[in-house]
Amino acid sequence: MTPRKRLMGLGAFALASSLVLTACGGGDSGDDSSEGTSTGIVTISNGEPQNPLVGSMTNETEGGLVVQQLYSGLVYYDAEGVVHNEIAESIESDDNQTWTITIQDGWKWSDGTDVTAANFVDAWNWAAYGPNGAKGAGFFDPIEGFTETQGVPEFDEEGNVSGMAEEPTAETLSGLEVVSDTEFTVTLNQPESDFPIRLGYSAYFPLPDAYYDDIEAFGEKPITNGPYVLEDWQHDSEINLVPNEEYNGPRKAQNGGLDFIVYTDENTSYADLQGGNLDILENVPTSAMSTFEEDLGDGAISEPSASFAAMTVPEWLPEFQGEAGLKRRQALSMAINREQITETIFAGTRIPATDFTSPVIDGWTGEIPGNEVTEYNPEEAKSLWDEANSEDPLPDDYVLTIHTNTDSDHQAWVEAVCNGYINDLDIKCEMTGYPTFDEVLNERDKGPDGKVNGLFRAGWSADYPSLQNYLGPLYSKAALAGSNDGRYESDEFDAALKEAAAAPSLEEANTLYNKAQEILFKDLPGIPLWYYSTTAGHSEAVDNVEFGWDSMPLLYEVTKSE
Amino acid sequence: MLWYIGRRLLQVIPVFLGATLLLYGLVFLRPGDPVAALGGERGLSPAAEIAIREAYHLDQPFIVQYLYFLKGVFTFDMGVTFTGRPVVEVIAQAFPVTFQLAIMAIVIETVFGIGFGLWAGVRKGKLFDSTVLLWSLLLISLPTFVIGFVLQAVVGVQLGWLPITAGRDPDFISLLMPAIVLATTSFAYILRLTRTSVVENITADFVRTARAKGLGRGKIMTRHVLRNSLIPVVTFIGIDLGNLMAGSIVTEGIFNVNGVGGTLYQAITRGENVTVVSLATVLVVVYIVANLIVDILYAVLDPRIRYA
User: Which residues cross the membrane (chain B) (predicted)?
Assistant: First the structure.
């Protein structure tokens, strides 16, 4: 069974050729010798990448989309999130801990040099080494020797990193070893059954030898091995890619090139799509949420995405500790009318959550024992809350607060949730707003010393299609220094994750990850809210537009006649 | 006159220092941590965080960061953005587009504002006058983004007369719609200013004298009425040039013009202090120069005003 439900089909690809628009913008697609491919240049809405165009330096979607087109890694994901080999010939392990990776012959960089096993090992070592400051460094954490490449940080009294107490003792990861030009081995700290799934993420992309000659210049004009190469990057305006002639892999470009147009206002890109100036719109603006399916017809796309939203209940709040605390957590979860909020506030573009992951991930099941708390049940909620109060009374002036940044569209649903609490639980509830996202982050990171004295909003998107990628980073003890901002600690949960990571097959691992979720539902460190949808659109000039599990279009497939 | 200009230019130095210090202080005081924001939900590894802080001098106290910035200004090397682009390059890319847009808007609002205002003033109380006054009131009360989106949807998307967005390397035609939107509010102000002054001057003694000595109507209008009516209008245009350069964030967003407004907005949300202050500094200089030009124009328009 595929867990991926298409809410809106993409079936009808008729009559596009009569409405073809001339390709605008730069890039000489010219004489493409390969047969069966279209030659039009596809335009895509995007934001300005905030990092150099290097896989391990990029952690935001704007740059991520471009980087995915420029580089090829060991594996790639198809639209359903299923992993296929790209450069890898095989990725094998007997114990899920020592992996032997062989790569195919014949892959080339756009400067003509060969893609070798060393290109992977060197790139990973460079990204992992702390002082290089790569934003994707954390992805190498499972590999043996990672801590030695990080050094020991020093913290000031507020818990912020203030300097290095000890410099790193190693420049390279001891767990990586080049065996030959086409083979290398990876030793992990502990078994990780989903390791091959992770390798399609951009942090694991290889880099050519030329990278280390001039790192700064490289990010502006990279030498790459993916389906496309960079032709021109006019900052804040346009990025032009042309098909890579050296590329012979499974993601061969089916169009004459890609032009990423940088927009600062989503309403503007929507107007351009309607006016025929844009082929693929990555995000439908909030203002058009209720009308876009009508406006765009066959070009409208709405399907579940890998993003998940929850409210974290911080462990440091006394009223949510112990038996009474657990009852309060359950009451708060049951008093949210997810159906109604997703329908009225989000016009059906979010889907009520029934677990802590996302329906697009392989292994997802909506049927985790204990997930009844995600069903709206105001009577039960009220009686649980009252029970908790009789065991452990709250002060009369108790006000529940929900902390969120207000620079995005969070205010509306927080108010809706609060109103639900006021009506169903008969308590006082208020939103504590922060103007920008980094301010909430800052306060959350300070834990009990910060200003967060209530629930806070937590959103999460997977980097690779694996259940582990939700559960580990958000709720494991290992992530206490990272993104486990609610400071949930459970030996039972950690042991369950470990068992799943060591499972001999992915299917067994998924079963075990879902078992681990039962513990989360028992403890409720967070209250699942909803899954996000990908809401996007495309013009009539392009065909074969598919969005992947990660809400990114599979651009190499798109066809457009000239 | 030259002496006056020289003295005014010298005043730029303390204004520059004061403005940048203030700006830098304000940006510095903004709560939140830009480096934490770079990591997103996932967070950066501590070593990466330290490396980034060092690279941008964010580990230094406020005054040291400010001195680094000043050093950058005087060596034309203001450092790099978080993407690794030199800030100087960002400025060089953003300003020409915005400047072109601002000049187009100024020309539109001046030509139409003064023209309509003069005509309305001469025909005070007539139908044309009241219609124009009503319309100008409407334009002043409409927020820019409403005019922008409506014009874009109608003229751009539905009728297809003008390009919907400016995009890369915008030309005159693609900047026309944003320029009109930018000009609307100021056009209404200039119209009203001109009209009021014209109404006042048309009954002034010197106009009566001119008429009494038999001067033609056209000459009276251009040489006496209009010239004397322009002083408040010129003051307004001078200030408006600065506003148009800095305040076009909304319009630039709607029409996807890659100018100062959008760049500034993004830099603020990202917490890129150096970019914010550098762009704002250039804006401060633009303001100062525009006001200097206005002051000099006074003397041209009205010989009674002299600078020594």
Answer: 12-29, 99-120, 132-152, 172-191, 230-255, 275-301
